Amino acid sequence: MSSSWRRRLAYTITHLPQLFPMASTDQHAVAATSPAGPTFPPGRYGRRRAAHGVAARRYQRGIIAALLCAVLAASGAAAWRLYQIYSAQVIHVRVLAFNVVSEHQVQVQFEVKKSPGSAVTCNVRARSRDGADVGQAEVVLPPHGPDTMTYSLMTRKRAVIGEVLRCVPGE
To answer: Pick from 112, 163, 159: which is nearest to 140 by CA?
Structure first.
């Protein structure tokens, strides 16, 4: 017989007088009944389930807590890394000066405030007196380069202004 059948049998025998109240002539010592439940003779039925169950539950709770902490730590690390990669970097650009060098060239000096260690691509353009674009270029500022840049832009005809349209994070 397996131990589960033994327990069921012991439980049924113990609670038989409660299930079928009648005069008992049987004088076997099986188990004493208390309000907390039956108490079995020590060492007779192997390990008690309650004592083993508490340790097993404590062990399972420890494993579950450790796995939960590991999953939270991995999720936090992944979220932080994705934030660093895809977060909108704050880039401020300011034109310090522009100088019309000749009929076909303008120099634009500008300053870029960016996150340290990040490359930036800026779009520089020149316009003529009537407002038409006469020259445009993309300027890449390296990650560890200077924040101030002077760029010589070639134009199709005489420019009257040099400006920086925008700067975006680059590779």
So the answer is: 112
Q: Which of 129, 116, 111 is nearest to 167 (CA)?
A: 111
What are the Cα distances from residue 128, in Å, to 95, 102, 158? 18, 13, 6
Global pTM value: 0.48
105 vs 100: CA distance, rounded Å = 6
Query: Is 151 in a helix, a strand, or coil?
Result: strand
For the chain, what's the residue count? 171
pLDDT digits (tens, 9 = 90+) for 117-148: 888 899 999 999 999 999 999 998 888 878 88
| Residue 154, strand partner residues | 105
The token duo for 160 is: 């009257």
CA atoms within 13 A on the CB side of 145: 13
Task: Please give the structure tokens belonging to residue 24.
Answer: 């008992």
- How far apart (Å, rounded) are the C-alpha atoms in residues 35 and 128? 100
The residue type found at 91 is I
Cα–Cα distances in angstroms (integers) from residue 156 to residues 2, 8, 131, 132, in the given order: 97, 98, 13, 11
The helix (H) or strand (E) run that includes residue 77 is: helix 49-86
Beta bridge partners of 100: 106
Which of these, 113, 162, 167, 110, lies nearest to 140 by C-alpha position?
167
